[in-house]
Specification:
The protein has 373 residues and is an alpha/beta fold. The chain has 9 helices and 23 strands. The chain has helices spanning 13-24, 40-44, 75-88, 172-183, 208-215, 220-235, 250-257, 267-272, 354-371, and strands spanning 2-3, 6-9, 29-32, 93-94, 99-105, 108-113, 117-120, 122-125, 132-133, 147-150, 164-168, 187-191, 198-200, 202-203, 206-207, 262-264, 277-279, 282-285, 289-292, 297-299, 302-305, 309-310, 342-344. The strands form 7 sheets. The protein has a 5-stranded parallel β-sheet, covered by helices on one side. Strand 18 and strand 19 (289-292) form a beta hairpin. Helix 1 (13-24) runs parallel beside helix 9 (354-371) and helix 6 (220-235) packs across helix 7.
């Protein structure tokens, strides 16, 4: 039995931030991490990835990114930042600890890993969204002769040079993977089932996140009304290229759909130039390609599924149905849940940036736990 005041599950950005904030207030805590390193999710991302939010607004509590880092740090730079963050605050991380179950019993949380039972009055879930890849099923998928992989398995486009590759999904991963494929000599297409919004990463040299922070106190519809003419001028009419525009703007999309619009880092330029072909949603697979909604067909050598993830915290949390929905998504984040001593960090889809929001939530959670002392 291992005892501490607070158990944190996950040594990604959210878990590290909560642990650092708790340590600053003198509250004992441990982090249980199933891999052997911090930032495991970041390490698995594709090589080309950079933060879509600027470093100034993406820091964790008490530690800035190094001055020599670019405005939008690379994946490897983010990993290094997380490693240095854990060292700086001397966080107590137990690696290679797979959490089998967590339950509230006798006024404490009992967290069972493969070899240790941990107990504490407080439990913070900071596993992030990317616990379980979301892999849709389509008719004929098993007959497709090409390669099908989820974006979590994609590293770079070197193996796809000269090949026709379909990216399924128009989120930020799908948009950048399509760029990466083109840069490696592939012939990419992108399947977009739903209507979308597109926003630039910067406006007049100002990070879009900084604008979002200023406008965050506005009603979403007002922010969208203010931004609409600017976005039309900068992004243009996306319907010219086979995309459907959402009937509401980016701020409303984040609030209503809990989805971030595409933050364009070059995808639209390649679409306009005909380097990336836009298709409608996938209907079914054939031996050599894909049939799309609307009747169009095309042949592909490979398909990359940028279809997102399930958080699935219900895989190990027991008797906590009031705190999570049927998809395993927490119904609250950054504060105590409906269950005593249970907190979630990093599950709010924010118009002001996920890492920035994680820092805010971590401070809120540490403050809430310290009040109980």
């Amino acid at each position: 039995m291992s005892d501490t005041n607070t158990i944190i599950i996950g040594a990604g950005a959210a878990g590290l931030a909560v642990a650092a904030c708790l340590k600053q207030t003198g509250i004992s805590n441990i982090i249980l991490e199933q891999s052997d390193k911090v930032g495991a999710t970041w390490r698995r991302h594709y090589d080309r990835l950079h933060l879509h939010t600027d470093k100034k607004n993406s820091v964790l509590p008490f530690a800035s990114f190094p001055k020599e880092y670019p405005r939008y740090p690379s994946r490897d730079q983010v990993v290094t930042y997380l490693e240095e963050y854990a060292k700086r605050f001397e966080l107590d991380i137990r690696f290679n600890q797979h959490v089998d179950s967590a339950r509230w019993k006798d006024d404490q949380w009992l967290v069972q890993t493969q070899d240790t039972l941990h107990a504490s009055p407080n439990l913070v879930i900071a596993c992030g969204y990317a616990r379980q890849p979301l892999i849709p099923e389509w008719k004929g998928k098993e007959t497709f002769r090409g390669k099908i992989i989820h974006s979590s398995k994609y590293k770079n486009g070197s193996e796809f040079k000269g090949k026709n590759v379909l990216v399924v999904g128009f989120g930020n991963s799908g948009g950048e993977i399509a760029i990466d494929l083109y840069e490696h000599g592939a012939k990419p297409g992108i399947a977009v089932r739903n209507a979308v919004n597109v926003i630039p990463r910067e406006l007049a040299g100002i990070p879009i996140l900084s604008i979002g922070i200023v406008q965050n106190k506005m009603p979403a519809r007002l922010a969208d009304a203010v931004n609409a003419p600017i976005l039309r001028a900068v992004v243009g009419d996306i319907t010219k290229y086979g995309l459907r525009k959402l009937p509401y703007g980016p701020a409303t999309q984040i609030q209503k759909d809990k989805r971030i619009p595409l933050i364009d880092v070059g995808t639209m330029k390649l679409i306009r130039e005909g380097c990336i072909t836009v298709y409608s949603g996938v209907k079914e697979f054939s031996e050599n390609g894909v049939k799309f909604e609307g009747g169009k067909e095309a042949e592909f050598d490979a398909v990359i599924l940028a279809t997102g993830y399930h958080p699935r915290v219900n895989d190990f949390l027991q008797d906590t149905s009031s705190a999570i929905d049927e998809e395993g998504m927490p119904t609250s984040t950054g504060r105590e849940s409906s269950i005593s001593g249970l907190y979630f960090c990093g599950y709010y889809v924010s118009p002001t940036g996920m890492l920035r929001e994680i820092g805010i939530e971590a401070k809120q959670i540490a403050a809430a736990i310290s009040l109980k002392q």
